[in-house]
């Protein structure tokens, strides 16, 4: 029986600029506000979890943690991950389900799983199931909406030469002909065997999503991501009935039950849970296994340094998304070989934080302990 307790908790916010200009159909990625939460436990283990925003809300997540969630962790046994997640979720029920609460929960939950994996001396992916030792990798560090067809071709050819097995291209230019021209230029350059994913970032209405999907027919697309607002489940089902292109959703969902609704209605072909936005590893794993019962693949959004372990843990994860963002505050990188992402072998999350770099960059630092 565990007799460990959480003695104190550290909170930090570190803002990380994107490596390249990132634009899509509805927004720009301004900065990654990275919120780090570290559990200091009585067994000597220090376990760190994290979440992020793409430019706004970071301080609000920190405030929710500081004022409402972290004080409830002090003195708790970190082994009771499920009980803690449920208690914190209902403690914030007036603000759930939604991005701020889920991001705050993710900070806590990923730290708890880091503790559990460290305490068991296992890497996270093996602790959670160890389903596969490598996962195919596609890149999203390119393909942005502001790029010309020529720039897209050059970037995608470079990615292909580097060994990536696919690349994502943003769609949502003012006229469908522009999207088609961009995609066709890239397809002709890379050939039929290289996978091309597309992402509309919820930029279309129902009629336009069907129109564009029909215009993309014959380009061999791996999927059409977030074609419609995430709230429009029946619209996605309608689109699936009008296209053979797989429909992918998930980065804008914040609870497993939202994925259940899509799966029950046959409104998606691929689910893309984001471990930070869904509220942590606990709900992410539930969503992955739920999708498996519908024979639906999991291809998570962003956070590759954590998702590589989660994808390796489950049998139905088919892609890891390459989009680096933690390089400046870590001393280890996700291991990539021959177009595959390989999960780390170190116990815990397998992310080696550079605390010196974090201390230099942090704009917020708080410590919370028993009064």
Could you list some keywords that capture this structure?
371 residues, alpha/beta, ten-stranded mixed β-sheet, four-stranded antiparallel β-sheet, 12 helices, 14 strands, globular
Report helical residue fraction: 25-40%
The overall strand count is 14
Distance between the termini: 27 Å
How many helices in DSSP terms? 12
Strand content: 15-25%
Uncertain parts: none
Profile the largest sheet. Answer: 10 strands, mixed
Shape: globular
**How confident overall, as mean pLDDT?**
95
Summarize this structure briefly.
With 371 residues, the protein is an alpha/beta fold.
Write a structural description.
The model has no long low-confidence stretch (mean pLDDT 95). Helix content is 36%, strand content 20%. With 371 residues, it is an alpha/beta fold. It has twelve helices and 14 strands. The longest helix has 21 residues, at 99-119.
Give the SSE layout.
Blueprint: E1 6-16, E2 32-41, E3 46-53, H1 58-69, H2 81-91, H3 99-119, H4 124-127, E4 135-139, H5 149-161, E5 166-170, H6 176-190, E6 195-199, H7 206-215, E7 221-225, H8 233-242, E8 247-249, H9 256-264, E9 270-271, H10 281-293, E10 297-298, H11 304-313, E11 320-322, E12 335-337, E13 340-342, H12 355-361, E14 362-369
Parallel strand pairs: 4-5, 4-11, 5-6, 6-7, 7-8, 8-9, 9-10
Antiparallel strand pairs: 1-2, 1-14, 2-3, 4-13, 12-13
Helix pairs in contact: 1-3, 2-3, 5-6, 7-8, 9-10
């Amino acid at each position: 029986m565990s007799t460990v307790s959480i003695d104190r908790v550290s909170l930090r916010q570190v803002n990380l600029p994107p490596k390249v200009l990132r634009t899509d159909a509805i927004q720009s990625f301004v900065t990654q506000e990275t919120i780090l939460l570290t559990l200091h436990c009585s067994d000597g283990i220090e376990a760190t979890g994290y979440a992020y925003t793409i430019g706004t809300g970071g301080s609000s997540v920190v405030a929710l943690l500081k004022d409402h969630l972290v004080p409830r962790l002090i003195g708790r046994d970190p082994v009771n991950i499920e009980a803690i997640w449920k208690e914190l979720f209902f403690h914030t029920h007036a603000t759930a389900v939604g991005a701020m609460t889920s991001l705050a929960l993710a900070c806590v939950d990923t730290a708890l799983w880091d503790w559990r994996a460290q305490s068991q001396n296992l890497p996270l992916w093996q602790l959670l199931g160890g389903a596969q030792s490598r996962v195919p990798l596609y890149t999203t560090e390119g393909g942005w909406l502001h790029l010309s067809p020529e720039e897209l071709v050059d970037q995608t050819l470079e990615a292909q030469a580097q060994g990536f097995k696919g690349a994502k291209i943003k769609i949502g230019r003012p006229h469908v002909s522009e999207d088609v021209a961009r995609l066709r230029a890239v397809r002709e350059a890379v050939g039929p065997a290289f996978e091309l994913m597309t992402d509309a970032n919820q930029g279309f209405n129902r009629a336009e999503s069907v129109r564009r999907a029909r215009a993309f027919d014959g380009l061999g697309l791996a999927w059409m991501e977030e074609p419609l607002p995430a709230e429009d489940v029946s619209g996605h089902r309608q689109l699936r009935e009008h296209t053979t292109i797989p429909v992918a959703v998930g980065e804008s969902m914040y609870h497993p039950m939202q994925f259940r609704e899509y799966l029950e209605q046959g409104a998606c072909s691929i689910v893309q849970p984001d471990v930070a936005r869904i509220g942590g590893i606990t709900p992410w794993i539930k969503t992955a296994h739920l999708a498996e019962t519908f024979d639906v693949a999991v291809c998570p959004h962003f956070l590759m340094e954590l998702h590589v372990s989660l994808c390796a843990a489950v049998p139905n994860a088919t892609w890891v998304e390459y989009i680096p963002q933690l390089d400046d505050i870590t001393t280890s990188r996700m291991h990539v070989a021959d177009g595959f992402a390989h999960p780390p072998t170190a116990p815990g999350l397998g992310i080696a934080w550079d605390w010196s770099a974090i201390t230099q960059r942090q704009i917020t630092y708080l410590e919370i302990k028993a009064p």
